[in-house]
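for the recovery benchmark. tokens below, seq after
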């Protein structure tokens, strides 16, 4: 416990003001030249003196009681990991061991850069009982965040004074990317309703690229699925069942350069990129593939492909505090490192916001990567560009903006077609469509055996 300053309360100030007013009245009465008025003035002054002495004694006694107040026991309960831009409930528990009931005001020292609701809070503490109160906070930035203690404003017995204490211990919390998309996918996948997210997987029953098992023939199986040797041996139709290939590797090249700082809505392009990485990682790991990543364009991090039930947590713990920087992205250096360290053929997913002037540089980079890996470029497009084309043209400046944006988007489409002609898969999407688009591309690649 760290006691803070003790401040007088309005009740004490009102008493002091009342005695001061009476003293002033007595002084003014002395100016009246009358015997009876002088007597009243003397009585009034005597009363003021007595009142001031009594008030001082009570105030001193009340102040001393603050030091005898039994310490509170405070606890803070919230998840160790909270998602960015989502409201999270924080619960404070207070155990009061003093002999009297008291009403206090609590204010939790939450981290900078967070929005809060329902703070400060007034709560009644009952002797020997645990009191619970809650408030909500919403982080606006990923990374590590620190809570301080909890400020408690404690009134004295007579409510002449209020002392501020700092109780409780500092606490660390990790602000993760928004993993709501993974939770939604997991929930919908259970009921085979992932199309509600926009994911367009069209599984073909019994068909695939990797042998899974033999089973009895079912209506709808194709002739090429029938295993004739097993059919003869068992004297009934037996079909081969296949599945999508497993044990493949998905590797993300995550751009953390300055263009990823662009922000169209509440999240930056980089935050949307992280959400897409997490969703595709979850889907790929559920398929039995391994997932790895590297960041470039700022802080360099490398996570070799991992394949386990806890791999999503491993990825989260490696990227949750990554932030886009003000540096330019060096695609060539990043590609060289991938070629040197990622030996097994993989699906390389390059998530970036590609500047038009970087397209020519990227051709040589993709040529190098394409010799060994299958490359998918997920290129983010500023949403404001699409919004500009949808606005009505009413003024000359509107026409100039429309023509400029149209020309820029035409250049992007030409660059995209050039990449497709070179055999490079690529997406050109606004941030809100990125996660679903990369998952759909992954399913298409798996189903046609592209990797």
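predicted aa per position
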């Amino acid at each position: 416990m760290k006691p803070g300053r003790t401040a007088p309360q309005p009740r004490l100030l009102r008493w002091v003001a009342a005695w001061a007013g009476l003293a002033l009245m007595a002084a003014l009465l002395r100016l009246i030249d009358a015997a009876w008025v002088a007597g009243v003035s003397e009585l009034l002054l005597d009363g003021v003196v007595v009142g001031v002495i009594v008030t001082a004694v009570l105030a001193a006694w009340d102040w001393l009681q603050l030091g005898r107040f039994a310490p509170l026991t405070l606890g803070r309960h919230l998840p160790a990991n909270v998602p960015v831009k989502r409201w999270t409930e924080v619960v404070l528990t207070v155990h009061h061991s003093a002999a009297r009931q008291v009403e206090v005001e609590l204010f939790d020292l939450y981290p900078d850069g967070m929005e809060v609701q329902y703070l400060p809070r007034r709560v009644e503490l009952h002797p020997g009982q645990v009191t619970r109160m809650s408030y909500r906070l919403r982080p606006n930035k990923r990374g590590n965040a620190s809570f301080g203690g909890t400020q408690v404003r404690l009134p004295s017995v007579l409510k002449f004074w209020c002392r501020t204490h700092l109780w409780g211990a500092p606490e660390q919390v990790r602000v993760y990317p928004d993993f709501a998309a993974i939770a939604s996918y997991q929930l919908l996948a259970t009921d085979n309703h992932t199309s509600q997210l926009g994911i367009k997987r069209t599984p073909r029953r019994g068909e695939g690229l990797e042998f899974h098992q033999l089973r009895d023939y079912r209506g709808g199986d194709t002739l090429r699925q029938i295993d004739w040797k097993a059919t003869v041996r068992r004297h009934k139709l037996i079909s081969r069942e296949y599945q999508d290939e497993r044990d493949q590797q998905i590797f993300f090249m995550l751009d953390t350069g300055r263009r990823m700082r662009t922000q169209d809505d509440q999240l930056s392009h980089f935050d949307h990129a992280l959400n897409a990485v997490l969703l595709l990682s979850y889907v790929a790991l559920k398929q039995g593939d391994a997932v790895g990543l590297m960041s470039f364009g700022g802080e360099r991090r490398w996570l070799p492909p991992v394949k386990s039930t806890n791999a999503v947590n491993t990825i989260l713990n490696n990227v949750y505090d990554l932030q886009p920087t003000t540096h330019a992205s060096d695609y060539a250096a990043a590609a060289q490192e991938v070629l040197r360290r990622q030996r097994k053929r993989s699906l390389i997913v390059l998530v970036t916001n590609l500047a038009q002037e970087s397209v020519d540089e990227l051709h040589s980079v993709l040529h190098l990567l394409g010799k060994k890996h299958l490359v998918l470029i997920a290129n983010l497009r500023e949403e404001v560009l699409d919004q500009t084309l949808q606005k009505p043209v009413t003024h000359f400046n509107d026409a100039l903006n429309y023509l400029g944006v149209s020309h820029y988007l035409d250049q992007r489409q030409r660059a995209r077609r050039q990449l497709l002609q070179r055999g490079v898969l690529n997406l050109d999407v606004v941030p809100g469509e990125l996660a679903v688009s990369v998952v759909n591309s992954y399913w298409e690649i798996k189903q046609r055996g592209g990797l």
